[in-house]
Amino acid sequence: MSNQPASPWRERLTSPLTWHYAGFTVLLVLTVVLAARLGLDWAATNGRSTDALAGKQVELRAMDLQTAPLRGLDRRVEESRSQILAFYQKRIPPNYSSIAARVGELQVNSGVRLSRVQYSQGPPGNDLTEISMDAGIGGAYPDIMHFVNSLERDKTFFVIRAMQLTGTQGGLVNLRLRVSTWLRPADVPSDMPATPKLGEEGSTPTTEPANRPAAGKEGE
Asked: How large is the average pLDDT for residues 97-109?
């Protein structure tokens, strides 16, 4: 029996080197496929992360804008309380008698004459109660204006509510005047009558606005 030479292809297939090449090629293809898939997944994940980060930055900016007015709120509240307390101490009369005493001093200094002076109280408030003075005032016109301006500029907090001309005689002017100030509820006399509304019987009619500005107002 004669020995036939082996086919070259058969030798190559049975050669260990051929199988090494084949295995290397398969591994190379798998590596390329896996690398491409990893790259695509990384790009998708990175895009989602960027979008999420941008969304969080927008939310953080919105929250920052919303909370901006609240920054330092405790400090501003404390400053407001201090200002209110200072206003009470400087501008609010300590008691009822000090109101009458101060009005009397301004009357003497301006040279006018007050008559039919009546005091009354408004509805009690939590912190302050309005005290009204309804009076007749007579004198020369410049003296009356001096008295009114002195009330508006006084350290004690007075507010002119209403004025009405009631007559003139021999160069003298007669007015009815309503003035308001405030007291702490505990300082209001218990027997003080209630203030009638403007326009009611016994009250000062509103014939001239009382909110005209007074130049050089002090204490504000």
From this structure: 94
What tokens appear for 154 in the block? 């006084």
How do strand 172-183 and strand 129-140 relate by DSSP bridges? antiparallel
Q: How many residues does the chain have?
A: 220
Secondary structure (3-state) at 214:
coil
What backbone torsions phi and psi does residue 188 show, to the nearest 5 degrees?
A: -80, 125
Are 91 and 184 within 8 A, CB to CB?
no
Q: Distance of CA 146 to CAs 107, 142, 150, 173, 196, Å?
A: 10, 6, 6, 13, 27
- Class of the domain covering 94-187: alpha beta
Distance CA 130, CA 167 (A): 29
Claim: this prediction has a pTM higher than 0.85: no
Q: Are 100 and 107 in contact (CB under 8 A)?
A: no
Domain boundaries in the chain? Answer: 11-63, 94-187
- pLDDT tens profile 104-158: 999 999 999 999 999 999 998 888 999 999 999 999 999 999 999 999 999 999 9
Residue 54 has pLDDT above 60, yes or no: yes
Tokens at 139, concatenated: 């004198």
Q: Return all residues near 153 (Cβ < 8 A) that are at least 6 apart.
A: 214, 216, 217, 218, 219
